[in-house]
Structure formats: structure tokens, C-alpha cells
Amino acid sequence: MSHCDPVTLEIIRGAARAAQAEMEALLERTAMSAFIREKKDFYTALFDANGAMAVGSDLPIFGDIVAPVAGRFPIETMREGDLYWYNDCYGSRGAVSHSNDQVFLAPTFHEGKRVGFVMGWAHFSDIGGLRPGSLSPDATDHFQEGIIIPPVRLARDGETNEDLLRTFWRNSRFPTQSQGDTRALMAAVRLGEKRLSEMAGRFGPEVLEDAFRQLLARTEATVRGKLRQIFPIGTTRFADAIDTDGHGNGPFTLRLALTRTEDDRFIFDATGTDDQAPGPVNLLMHPDVPGMALGLYVLQGTTGQVLNAGAPHAIDEVRLREGSLLAPKAPAPLGLRGLTMMRLLAALHGLVAVARNGEAPAAHSAYVVIALRGTAEGKRFLMSDGIGVGYGARPFADGTDAVYFVAQENYPAEFMELTYPVRLRAYGLNRDSGGPGRFRGGCGVIREFEVMADEAMLAVRIDSVKNPPWGVAGGMNGGSGRAVVNPGTERERILAPLSDGTILRKGDVFRIETGGGGGWGHPFDRPADQVLADVLGGFVSLERAARDYGVVVREGTVDEAATAARRMQRPATGLFHRNGYRDAVA
Amino acid sequence: MKPELSAPLIVAVDIGGTFTDVTLQDAVTGQAWTAKTPSTPRDPSEAFVTGVRLALDAAGRRAEETGRVLHGTTVATNLILEGRTAPTALLTTAGFRHVLEIGRADLPRRDNLWAWVKPKRPVPPSLVFEAGGRMASDGSELAPLDEEAVRAAARAAKAAGVAAIAVCFLHAFANPAHERRALAILAEEAPDLALTASVDVFPVVREYERSMATVLNAAVMPAVSTYIARLETRLEQAGIHAPLLLMKSNGGVAGAAAIGRAPAQTALSGPAAGVVGARAVAAAAGVENLITVDIGGTSADICLIAKGEIGLTQTGRVGPWPLPLPMVDMVTIGAGGGSLARIGADGALTVGPQSAGAEPGPACYGRGGTEATVTDAHVVLGHLPPSLLGGRMTLDPALAEAAIARVAQSLDLTLDAAARGILAIADNNMVGAIRVVSVERGHDPRDFTLVPFGGAGPLHGCALAELLGITRVLVPPAPGVLCAQGLLAADLKAEFTRSIAEPLDGADLARIEAAFAALEAEAIAWFALEQVAEADRRTRRVALMRYEEQGHELSIPWTAPEALGAAFAAAHRGLYGFDLPEVAVEIVTLRVEAAGALPAPAPSPPHGGSAAEAMVGRQRILLPGGAVEAPVLDRARLGPGAVFPGPAIVTQLDATTLVGAGWSGEVHPSGALLLTRG
Predict the structure, then answer these.
(1) What is the ipTM of this complex?
(2) B211, B240, B266: which is the final residue of a domain?
């Protein structure tokens, strides 16, 4: 095999990144659904000739994308111009973990030789199922969550099977959007295929192959080395819980154990996790996910590294228990697995916090999604709104306020009012939702809507209400979210945080408040002028500044004497904080 | 604004970090003079006028003969990028106090979720004030403006010591009445402050982006106004009574009065001027499809020009901030002469985006830099002459070698392999960006001529072209100071826009016609303000269209309504490779583009002789196949029609051109150097 020198390796990495940027630009500009083009819920990746993801997106949730296709269509039978497609969660062992995510995969050839694969991945806003948007807290069965596409060959030798597409579109309540999104995603994958093939031509297929091999090996070595720095020999444990499955059950506890053996093998064990839920909060977790997620965490601050399939290789063994929340049996519903995923990511940081005595990010809230559906002026509408939350404070910085997830954007109020029968009455930060700390947890948001349609049905998905995001190293927990209808009126009612089927009428107001992130470090160590700025900026209330931070603000300035006096009475702390300091959160 | 015989001189002033360059041209004869003077960062107007005087002296002309003064200013850009804007307040719709803080609630796609720290907003939420009152998306008033809240905000903002107040209310693009009224109240309450409303900056949908544009506009207004006033005073004192025109990010110029009201329009004017200059150079050489690459010390700006038309975008950014004003559609990447080559703990070699900057600069500058840069790699490979800037700066090859040697040792490479590797990585990063620009515009780069400029551009032109499959490279006559050329070539330009949201099928044509007429009335008022003669006025109607529910619009020149659908479908196919015949099309925004033609100066033809006559020496270049003694040619002595083969080095005051092996050079009658490959 030809060796790829370090210079060519960096050139190939740059070319791969540029190919991704081109694919993303094309997709964003041509997709039709707001979910893709405004919220930007799409990702791309390049794979080596055997299907290992060599250059991925900086997203902690990818599993083995190619294997499900290769299981049905042996790789050696693939031909130039082929295009494969699936969204089958159980059929892909969790490579896709809810059916709205469509994976398009093209094997890529250069002079007749397979040199790799290109993936385009995007969330389609409606693919049929129980309710518009296909994801509903009410689902009790995966078959209610939209049409399932097993790994299929959408194109052979460049010839697209239009019947397959027509069948798919026919199952959507918004076939035009689905059609536009499909075309955009296919065009993006074809562009990536062209670029990867050009790379093989430019550098030679053998050099490209070796470059991908090196990128995978480099990531694996870096991740493994960093994990060794973090985790001592022995077993590190952390557990946390999601509140509910929306069907009266819960909490459901995730119990994680990471063992580093004497001979430096890493074993990830989640078999102690609670049983699967009747409601759609099950996370069919691909065994690659813990490695990808820890990989993203430990790769921060490294330049020239890419998150790829090398990261999961740094974990030698992943143990899951079939029938548990992280390895549910079909056909358990999966639609809202996002909240379990977000809780899992925080729990992985919990492992780091335990191993390093608090040198880790505090917990974040799970991003919030609501769906409002109905008919307005004779047209069916679906408003799926992803709403930002607060992320955990870090040993070096405050947690991020009001962010949804990597790369995903909110809908501007002006866009919403132009597009959907709603009016946005307020959109601001949720004061006091950021966990107090030397570094403050990020604040969640408040989004208040007035319904302009005659009637509409609302679904909400908010987690970490009973179990707010933990603080660490002296930092306190973040605030919880909630959903309220007609707040401040006689008709005020609090909705179950994970619920569907709420009927709203014209003039009804509903207010979504999202949770924050936990704090890091003792809040009494936060400089008083930063606390003052938080008070003046609407992040922290006067009362909480005094109570949690020991900072007394009067008439817009810090009362130094009163603050010094308060800060003398410094409470004792524990490693974690959730409704009080403690050594473990669940 | 025809050149009067009594005032035929055009002056273009470009203020850089180190030098202020002035070009003086006689619009009638085409004769040109240049002057260079050290910049005066504390008060840039000082060097401005010094430079103009020097140029006038060099030409032996009187100040009164000046007919117009053109200038590209980076005052606004630098304030924004360095976070030094004036203390500013924002007045927003009740309920939206955190509009800037939340932004689009996103985290950049290429950043690490756990490491990213949100950039500090130019206005903190403690200086954001809310006022009740509400417009609907169709422009109807839902609730009247709470005027008392506006007054209270003005008082509070004044008490907080701000220098400017920005006003941005929801849906103001559909009905600006509340913004107008609020502005009037603020003018009563706070007459000394700089005031700006979003409708006067750019009335487009999306409140975060529009609020940010308005805030940035307000926040740079005090400094830009002061700067312009000072320039005008100094010009008056120097006896120059000609109008002062400033470059905008859209590639056009506007009068000082218009810029004073909307200074954010200059935020990306520097790179825009270069692009306009490159287009002028290309046009003179008969080239209308070009890709420009402007490579400076820390970054490269890339722009694609098809059929002579510079594309505009409304999704540009300045630093981390979106700025939805019409600006030349280009991408900027962190690759330049000062880009640092570094090796990570894991052995990965990267080049940029970190840069050695102007201080200490590349190792070979001998100003204390020790890390290897792109420029050092060029020195090691023999691409640069021993001194630059006409001998004002000498390069130390030993220092360059020492810096590159450290990289070579870590990677177990030879010195020249390491140097070549650093250049290859930098070139590759630029090629990636060029491809993105091309795909976004639906073009194949091989159909284009590459126009490299900026101090480092012509060193990379041939290598970039080879990677892209481009066979023609056009090097401008003065590639290092092309911004001045752009200023001389720019027309007066402005865009007038209204969001409208009409389905193409069954569009309310009367409403559209009325909107266009209103926009054209605005354009006429602007023409009058800029004193554009009737004969020089041009307007064009453009519809921004998309498929229903798409996120991006395409600009389609307005035609008969029944032909618009086909024009849109064809444009979509051309750009993206497909169209969607069964999907409805929407007209989202109407735009009137106004241009006031300024007389282009006559070109000044080059003089000089053959390549043999221009040869000033030979220099050892390290090619992959071994070392060759390449000729060094003096650009100033190369006359029209001179031809020579590569490899060769062409030196001139402001840049060095590397003509690759397998390329040949020819001086075009316009003075540009055309490099072609077999």
C-alpha cells in the first residue's frame, strides 16, 4: 500500500472538509422544509472503502452508518451510480435512532475501483405516523412513528427507482416538502461522491486509502490517550435519570460504568440501566455512540483532528442489556430519544467528573421540541419548533445560554409569524435557570405564543423537570423547564412536560420555559461584578444573587459591605449538586 | 458628474495598516501618479491628506483641479472586529430584550459543542430596552407604540452614557411607522446621540440579523461621522472642494452624507474594492468570467465573477456577526503569507488560521518571528527575491530555513519537501474555498480565469490554477494595490428593498408595481442626493424568488410576470442541478438596484520592452524535480507583447509573481500579465 505522507494527509483532510462544506451549502440552499433549511438539522460524512467513517461531523451521536446497507447489499456487489437509503432504527441497530432521520449513502468509485462512501443525513419533518411531525409523546409502538425504510437501493447504475420515492412521499402529510428535501439531499450526496472520486484521482486511491486509515488511527490513538489521562485503572460509575416517558412511568435511571483494566482496555457497561419504557423515550443506542460522544469531549482543543470511527475503537467493549432503556426491544417507540440522548451525554461527563474530582462540564438540559398542528385558512400546517436550553458551566467558562445543539438554529419570530398561524409574544432568556457557580450554567429561554388558528393540537417535550441538570465542583443545579397555557389568567394550566393532545383555540397563549445548565465551582467565588452584570442583563434575579451568590445588589451597584458579610457564611459543598449538595445524583 | 476640464483629476486613497497609498489619475489623458506615505493610525485623515498632497506634487497639479476623491475606509470594520464600537443601546419590541443574546440559538457547525464560548455581543442586555407596540407580519398595527416607554428608554440610555441608540422593532420591514415615530421621539429626548432605525439600515425579514445590523450601524456611526467630518475639513483646508465618495461593501461608492447615515455599509468595503479592481483589470483584458483570489498576510478573499457581474449576498458576516446588507458575495479563509505552519501533539501538520500577522511577521522578516510561515516556505524554495517593496524590506533566507527546518525535522522530511508541503496545504485550503464559491453559484471553475492579487496572490496563482484545472491566470498590473484601481473603477451604487411575500401564481401585480414605483422613487431621491445627472442614472428591477418554503432566494431580473416562472426555474436548474415544476414559486422581496455611472478613466498603457530586456538576473528555484536557475524579470520593463516561458519570477514594487514550470507569460496590451498553460 502506498504511504500517505503528513503533508498529503493534511491536504486530504482539508479536501474532505471542503467537500462536506460544499454538500452542506447545496443542501441548505435547496432544501424545502424549515427543519432542514432554517433549523439546519443535517449532517454529512465521508467513509473509507470498507465503510468506516473517516471524516464525520462534530456530532456525538453517530453509529456505524454503512454496515446496515452492507448487510443487505454486499459491498462488492455495489456499482458506480448506486444510491442507498434507510431510516430503519431497529434494522440498523441504532445507526439511525428515530425514523425522521433519513440516511442517503453513495458508494464512490474511481476508475472502476471502490474508494469510499459518502453520506448525507437529514431530519425530514413528516414521514407519516400517528401525528403530524411523526414524533409524538403519545406513541406506544415504533410503527406509529412514520414509514420505515429498510436499507434499500434507491438507484442502480445511476437510475433512480422513482416508485420508491413516490411511495415515501405518499406517506407524508407534506409531500411537497418531502419531495424537495429528498431532491436536495440526493443532489448533495451526488456532489460529495464526485468530490471523493476526484480526491482518489488526485492523490491515488492507495494514498487516499492510507490517509483514511491514518485519520482513523490518529483519532483512535488520541482518544485512547486522553481517556487514559482521565480515567484511573478500575471502574468509574455514574448514574442519572430521565423524569418520565410521558405515559405515567419513570423516572428511568441510566447507570454507566467505565472500566479501565490493568492492561489498558476500556469497557463501557450500561447493563444496570432501567428497563425500556412503554413511551417513546427509548434510545436504541448504537454501541459506537459512547466512543463517539467521549471522543467529541476529549477532542476539544485539538487542531487537525476529526471525529470519526476511530473514536469508538478507543472503547474496547460496550455492554448493553437488551430490553433496557438503552437497548430496547422492537417495536418499542423511539421518537423522543433525543431527551435520553442528551441525558446520556451529560452522564458521560458525570463519569469524567467522578474520575477527575469535578474537572468536567456540569450537566445541560435536554433540548426542547414542541409541535403545533392544525388547519388554518384551509391548509394543514405543522410547526415543529426546536427551542434552545442552557448548557453546563465548564471549568474554564460559563455554560452556553440558549443553544439547541450543534449547528441547529432557531426560527426567527418574524419567520414564524409569516409562516405559521401564531404570534410570538415574547422570546427571551429564562432568568435564574442557569445553575449558580464560579462559572454560571447557561440560561434556558422563554418562548410565548398566541394561537391564531381556530384550533390546534400541541405536543411538548421537556425533560429534567423533576431531576434538574446537576452542578459540579461546588456549582449548583440549573433550573427546570415547564409549559403553561394562558399564564397569569384564570384559565392558567400547567401542561405535563412530556405530553401530546393538548387542544388550543384561537387566542390561547402558551408559554414554553426551558431549563438551564448546571453551574461549575462555588458561586461565592464568582466575581461580584460578573454577578452584577448578570443581574442587570436579566440572567439572575436580585434575590438569587443574594441567596446563591452572596452578592447584594442595590440600585444597580454591588453593596460591598453586605456582600462581604454574606460571603463569610460560605456553605459546605459536595462533588455534585441537585436540590442540595451530594456525592452522587441518582 | 462629468469630469470638468478644469477639474479632471480623480484621487483614490487606500489606507492600509502600514502605508497609505494614493493614486491620482487624469480622467481625460489617463495619466496616473502614485504616492505612498506611512499610515497615521491615531488620525488616519492626516496621512490621507499628506498622501494626496504628495501625489499632487508628483503630478505637478493644483488641488483645485481635483474633480472627485474616492476612499475605502476600514474604520467601521476595525471597530467591529476589535470590539471597540461606541457604547450603544438597542430599543426593541416588548418581550424581545434578549434578541441579540439569543441570536439564532446556534453553535457553529465546525465548533466543538463542549469547547465553544459564545462571543460577547456588541450591546449587553443591560442596554437593551423594550417598548410596547406591535406590527403584524402584513404591516397592520396590532398595538400602538408605547411612546412613554420610548422616552423612558432614551433617558435610561443617556444616563448609562451611551453614544448611540439603535431601533429595531418586529416587522418594521412591513410597516416602519413605529420605528419612525420612535426615532422622532429619541431625537427630541437625546438630540446629541447617533440614532438609527432598522428600516434605514436594511428592511429585511429576520429580527436577529436585522437588529445586529442596526446595532452595528449605530455603534460605528459616531466614529465614522467624526472621521468623515475630519476628512472633509482637511480636504477643504488643502483646497480640494471635490465630493468625497466612499466605498461600500456592495462594490459601489456613495457620498459622504449617505455613508454617515449608514456606515455599516462600509464594513466589508476593503475586499470589495479589490474585487471591483480585478473586474476592471479583467475587462480591459477582455476577460469576463473570473475567480479573484486576494491573498494578504492573514487571510484570502475569494470571489467568482460570471459574465462580468459581481454577485451580491445578504448573508455576509463581519467577524462573528451576521450583517444582512448587500455585499459582494465572497468567502474569506484564514490562509495568507503569514499563516503559521504548526505540528500538533499528535503529529498533525496544519497551516493557519493562526497568523504571524504584521508583527512579528514571518521569520524571514527578521523581526523576532521564529515560527514557520507560508512566506518562509516561499523564501526557502527561492520564490521571492532577496528584498521586497523596492528594497525597503530585506528577507533573511537563513531565518526562513531555520523556521522551516524545525517543521521538516518533526516530520522527518527534507527542507524543501517541508516547504513545498506547507504551500501545498495552504493552496489546498484556498482551492476548497474556491470550490465552495463555485458550487454555490453553480459554476465549474475550469471555465474561469484566475485573477490573483494582494501582496501574496501572484505567488500562488499558477499553483491554484493547476489544482483547479484552470489554464489561464491574469495578474493585474499592480496586484498589491488593486483596491485603488477598484476605487477608480467603481460606480455609485445603492439598493432599495422591500419584503413583499406574494405567490407568483396569482400575484397582486398592482401591489408589486406600486412597491417597485415606491422603491424607484427612493432611488430617484438618492440620485439627487448624489448629484447624478439624468443621463448617468441606471435602475434595475429585481425579484428575489424561491420555491414556496425554501430558505434562500434567487435574484431574478424582473421581466413580464408570465416569463418569471421560467426564468426562475432555469436559474434554479443552473445553480443546483434540478427544479421542482410542481412546487409553487413565491416572490419574497423586491429590489431596485440603482447605479450612477462615473466616467471611467482612460487606461494608461504600459511601456517597456521584451522579456530579454526586462531580465534583471537569475534565481535558484527548487522544483520538485530539482533546482533550476530561473530568470528574474522586472515587471516595469516588460512591455506589451513581451512573452516568456516559466519557470520565472516577475518582480515589481508591490508583489512578486511566480510563473510555474509549464506556464508561459505574455504582457497584454492593457498591461495585465496573462499566464497560460499548454
Answers:
(1) 0.92
(2) B266
